[in-house]
Amino acid sequence: MSIMTLSSMTGFGRAQGQIENYSWVWEIRSVNGKAMDVRMRIPSGLDAFDQHIKTTLSKVFSRGSINVSLQLQKDSSEVDVKVNEGALDKLINIAKQASQKHDLPMPSIDALLAIRDVVEISTMEEDAQKIINRDQQLKLSLEDAIAALKKSREEEGAATYIMLKNILDEIERLLKEGEKIAAKQPELLKNKFLAKVNALISDIKGFDQDRVTQEVVILATKADVKEETDRLVAHIASAKKLLKQKGPVGRKLDFLTQEFNREANTLCSKSTDIKLSNIGLSLKTAIDQFREQIQNVE
Q1: Number of domains into which the chain is organized
Q2: How far apart are the C-alpha atoms of 145 and 67, rounded to whole Å?
Q3: What are the tens digits of pLDDT across the range 4-54?
Q4: Exposure string (b/e) for 201-215, b if CB count within 10 Å is 16 or more?
Q5: pTM of structure
Q6: Residue 97 belongs to what domain range?
């Protein structure tokens, strides 16, 4: 069985990773769109990732409204503790003297350390190489999320392919039935015309038979739908070919659907038989269903 390449624009991809004290989750959601539209929600300080994300996505997808989200967590902050030894020594001496002078207990060491400027706690600057390693892993994880999104869109595309193929089969069935009915139109038109002439003229035998033939030919020509049915046959073949074609085909299918609808409208307007008119209406319904489904095809 051949592998279908039709891709939907609807999908979801997720990937998570961890390095040292960093952990993260990428989530990418995609829905249909006329062009490529990327929106991002990433932590501050990672602005340099904006262009990388857009460039990486554009290498894989050509259409779709895509939302990218990154949740980045730092498990614990490395801190640097500095004690002002000189100030602490002075405070201890002062505390001892006050304790002896006033016969009071010595204050606890944690009380002395809590005094302003005795202890300075600051977050240690990240090592540059550590940041580089983290960003490299983030980019690799992003590619995993994009691969998951691509797979999701292809799975949705496979389901859409089946629906579109079924609709095309129905259009083809209706068209064949319409062609059989259309083939009988000239004879029906002739009988209807003669019936009208007979109702108006008592002596039908005396009526110019060449004139009857001419009028029937004119009516049959106006009602001839052979060009429309031939074009519809060609459109069906083109649509089936596009469904199996590699790469984005959504825009081409959308244009082809407009051509489908144009021929179906003309067929309905030319029809002189209620059965053929009903076929034309059924064709228009199937074509509308086809158009609705291809709106989500990349």
Answers
A1: 3
A2: 12
A3: 578 999 999 999 999 988 999 999 999 999 899 999 999 988 888 999 999
A4: eeeeeeeeeeeeeeb
A5: 0.70
A6: 79-123
